[in-house]
Amino acid sequence: MNHDYEDDDLDIEDDGSERPYPTLAQTLEALEQGASIGLTATVYYGLSDLESSQLGALAQVWERLEPEYRVRVIQELVDTSETNFELDYRAFGFFALDDDDAAVRAAAVELLWTDESLEGMRKLLDMAFEDDSASVRAQAVGALGKYILLGEFNDLPETQTAACVDACFTIFHDEDEDVEVRRRALESLGNASRDGVNEAIMEAYNGHERSFKIGALFAMGKTYDDEWSAIVQHELNSPDAEIRYEAARAAGEIGIEDAVPKLSRMVHEPDRDIQEVSIWALGEIGGKEATRVLQHLLDDPAYAIDEGLIEALEDALVSSTLPGEDVALWEFNEADDDFSDPRGKASRWN
């Protein structure tokens, strides 16, 4: 952080060496100017790998910025962190978790999507119960799903991450809590192999809250349990677009081969999100029929001018191809191996 800095193109010098990072003073100046002229690479790089000794100076500038701009800064850092994995905004994210503005705090939770520390887990647990804003509590409890999953895979001590499961159960069953917070708690529970999870999902699905039904479908997919296949396939025909979306995503997560014909038709719906999630789901389900459908769609001239759908189809086709069927398919997009959930950053873990 204390190197000299010369221009906004901070990627690679002509000789192949890395360009130096901006100083903190340059970063803070660019951060203030960004409110009127837009963010530059100085901000993107300068806010990476912050040290604790720098946070005091940052706070003095940060507090002068309008809340809407602070939110926009964090949202753009989230987008940047998804494409440049060398940038580390965890220190900045923890700093922003204590912001006075609820929207900033909620955005900061999202910025910490790469954090897998027990410190981060404990902070989110506190926020899930104690933050004054329901939207922040919802974001925090939704992020706990990441830690539940890490515990399931023994990447974090399950004795520690069990607190997240207990918290999510408590919040889901709290009828005085905001519905969206309870929904996000349920979605996180989908990652847990704990007694009572499937019962909670069914309770939400059979309830009267539309939001609970949507969350239940999301959680069904996260269980990867074909017990939910009949319900998921039924909801693929729902008149509610958001329910169809979640059902399509769940069909992909669970790998429901019988859903391939319906998903193949949903690709032609006018709703762009449903098109993309249906393509993604076909790729996740895989097999000969899903691969055939994807290849047919890729060859369809109707999609030739839609670069976004072409990319989605190529990625899904790679994902769907069984080993040894057609190695050439893996050449579609060598630079992009992210065949992640189309719901994107809001659903990385839950």
Q: How much helicity do the residues have? A: 55-70%
* Total count of strands: 0
Unreliably modeled segments: 1-17, 324-350
Domain unit count: 3
Largest sheet: none
Integer average pLDDT:
89
> What is the succession of H and E elements?
HHHHHHHHHHHHHHHHHH
Rg, nearest Å: 22 Å
Strand content: under 5%
Please identify the structural class as seen in this structure: mainly alpha
Cα shape: globular
Number of helices: 18
The first-to-last residue Cα distance is 34 Å
Describe this structure in words.
By secondary structure, the chain is mainly α. The chain has three domains: 1-115, no CATH class; 116-223; 230-344, Leucine-rich Repeat Variant (Alpha Horseshoe). Helices cover 61% and strands 0% of the residues. The protein has helices at residues 24-37, 41-46, 55-62, 67-83, 90-96, 102-111, 118-130, 134-152, 158-172, 179-189, 197-205, 210-223, 229-235, 241-254, 260-266, 272-285, 287-299, 307-320.
SSE topology:
Layout: H1 24-37, H2 41-46, H3 55-62, H4 67-83, H5 90-96, H6 102-111, H7 118-130, H8 134-152, H9 158-172, H10 179-189, H11 197-205, H12 210-223, H13 229-235, H14 241-254, H15 260-266, H16 272-285, H17 287-299, H18 307-320
Helix pairs in contact: 4-6, 5-6, 6-8, 7-8, 7-9, 8-9, 8-10, 9-10, 10-12, 11-12, 12-14, 13-14, 14-16, 15-16, 16-17, 16-18, 17-18
In short:
The protein is an all-alpha fold and 350 residues long.
Core attributes:
350 residues; mainly alpha; 61% helix; 0% strand; disordered N terminus
